[in-house]
Sequence to fold (140 residues):
Amino acid sequence: MAKRIEVLESQLPSYNRIKTPFYEELLQTVKIMTTPGKGLLAADESVGSCTKRFSGIGLENNAENRRLYRQLMIGATGFEKYISGVIFHEETLFQKLDNGLTFPEHCAKLGVVPGIKTDQGLHPLLEGAPGEEMTEGLDG
Fold:
């Protein structure tokens, strides 16, 4: 592991100098999210992505069906045994399970790190090959 960190630090020199009062919290979050035997759940489908997913089974794409779909995943018994973190779509941050807890509250209660999708979708890569795209983030 030490060798991996050394390689990473050499490849990302600007990041190894970042100073933040949240350093210890970030380390703890990383430890949780990289728990051996667990993975991350990407529950960050946009409304458009859900349209594609639901149309194949004849399900109407509305807020309640998207909530129920996500609740199936994070509300599954034992979910926390296999999942260390969940990436949510903005809409999902405010949705609640049938028990009244928001999805992020439910995850945190189970020791699963809740997060949010921060990219703004694909856009043409101006200096790339024809048709090549990049993911645009919060920085625009």
